[in-house]
Inverse folding.
């Protein structure tokens, strides 16, 4: 069913009003028609009633059509307006359209067809305009909201940036504090160690058994504390980028044997066998011997610390692509796969409680990780709880200086390389004899 249109005719000439009404009726327009004779009445009718369309005579007795249109628009009254122009009014049609008229029609052209056609098209145009207006308004709203959200985001970004600066500064101060304190503590510690050693020499007088025992304890504890301080100092240097590798050509198997012989007494004290196998065609490498030894000492001291009974194997072997592997394997307590990633983070230990059984700073593996990265190498870990662990360090025969380690990405679990060796056991030739099988694997 066609909708009933509420139409207002504004014309002071009754004959014209009649002709409009009869033309619309003849055209079959379903309507409720109201008629007024001047601009004032038109304005008050339009402020009180919503019309579908207005036919407006341009020449009204109290004002012209243009003035009324401007008045309506400035009062935000929106309605399709068709201006009926007389002879000579045509020139101002452009002005009328600019002011807000929807369309115009010369009175001489009034007929049922033209009137109904212009009426329907004005209503269509008006509705399309309204929809466009609405869409525009919604667009402006979303634009405003976007601007607000953008401002909010910028504010948050600034806050994050501030927090980042604060964190960086806190971390810098922490590193500085660690470096200063460990450096300052080393001097008196060296004196304690030095004087204990002097006191233990017989030429400085005979000590009772008890005195000798006590001084030996001072010496051993001093050495242990110095080792911890050195770890902290190394770590703070590595963190601040202040540690350089001093590379030279050396025999890696000699350095390995030296490190093993230094650690042998600790293994013996726990009744652990410490086996070494070096299988290198070319034992000469270009690297920092002190740091290579430090890596092995750290791995060995962990292997000894976390193994209650059984064996520890050290193996050095040639790898393809001019690389060397240093492997330390134990029959200790093992590490759960969920801890693989964390134990390489500074100050992280599987047991973080203060009542933990095994002492340590939690820095050893973090230092190894940084050093191996600086050397352009990789660390692989295989371990199984209650069975044992295997740490494998792969290093190039010849490291590249200056280092690019600072640009290396942070420690990351490499999805491609991590796999469970329960399906794919991993044994080197010498490990095949005794190596615990079924370790989950991890590559750094
Ligand atoms: P620390 O030995 O001083 O605690 P590390 O960084 O050397 O610090 O090692 C971090 C943690 O990794 C250790 O606390 C331990 O939980 C685990 N871990 C390292 N090596 C072994 C190993 N061979 N067997 C079992 N757990 C180990």
């Amino acid at each position: 069913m066609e909708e009933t249109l509420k139409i207002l005719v504004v014309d002071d000439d009754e004959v014209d009003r009649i002709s409009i009404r009869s033309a619309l009726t003849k055209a079959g327009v379903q309507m409720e028609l109201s008629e007024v004779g001047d601009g004032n009445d038109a304005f008050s009718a339009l402020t009180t009633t919503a019309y579908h369309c207005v036919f407006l005579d341009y020449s009204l007795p109290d004002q012209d059509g243009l003035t009324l249109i401007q008045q309506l628009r400035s009062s935000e009254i929106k309605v399709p307006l068709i201006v009926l122009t007389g002879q000579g009014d045509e020139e101002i049609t452009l002005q009328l359209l600019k002011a807000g008229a929807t369309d115009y029609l010369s009175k001489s052209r009034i007929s049922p067809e033209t009137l109904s056609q212009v009426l329907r098209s004005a209503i269509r145009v008006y509705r399309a305009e309204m929809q466009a207006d609405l869409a525009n308004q919604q667009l402006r709203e979303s634009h405003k909201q976007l601007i607000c959200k953008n401002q909010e985001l910028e504010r948050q970004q600034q806050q994050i940036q501030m927090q980042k600066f604060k964190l960086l500064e806190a971390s810098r101060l922490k590193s500085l504090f660690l470096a200063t304190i460990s450096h300052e503590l080393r001097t008196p510690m060296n004196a304690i160690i030095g004087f204990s050693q002097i006191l233990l020499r017989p030429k400085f007088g005979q000590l009772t058994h008890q005195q000798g025992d006590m001084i030996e304890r001072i010496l051993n504890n001093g050495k242990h504390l110095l080792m911890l301080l050195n770890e902290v100092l190394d770590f703070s240097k590595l963190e601040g980028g202040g540690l350089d590798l001093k590379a030279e050509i050396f025999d890696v198997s000699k350095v390995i044997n030296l490190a093993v012989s230094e650690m042998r007494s600790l293994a013996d004290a726990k009744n652990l066998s410490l086996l070494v196998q070096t299988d290198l065609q070319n034992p000469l490498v270009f690297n920092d011997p002190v740091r290579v030894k430090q890596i092995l000492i750290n791995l060995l001291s962990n292997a000894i610390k976390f193994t209650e009974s059984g064996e520890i194997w050290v193996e050095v072997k040639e790898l393809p692509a001019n690389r060397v592997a240093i492997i330390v394997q134990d029959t200790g307590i093992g590490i759960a796969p969920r801890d693989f990633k964390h134990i390489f983070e500074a100050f992280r230990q599987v047991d973080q409680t203060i009542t933990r059984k095994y002492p340590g700073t939690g820095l050893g593996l973090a230092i190894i990780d940084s050093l191996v990265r600086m050397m352009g190498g990789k660390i692989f870990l295989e371990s199984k709880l209650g069975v044992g662990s295997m740490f494998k360090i792969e290093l190039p025969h010849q490291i590249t200086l200056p280092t690019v380690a600072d640009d290396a990405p942070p420690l990351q679990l490499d999805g491609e390389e991590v796999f469970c060796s329960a399906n794919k056991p991993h044994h080197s030739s010498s490990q095949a004899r005794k190596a615990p099988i079924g370790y989950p694997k991890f590559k750094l």
Notes: Residues 302-303, 306, 330, 332-333, 335, 343, 349-350, 360-366, 389 surround adenosine-5'-diphosphate (CB under 6 Å). The CA atoms of residues 101 and 203 lie 119 Å apart. The chain has three domains: 5-110, 169-237, 245-418.
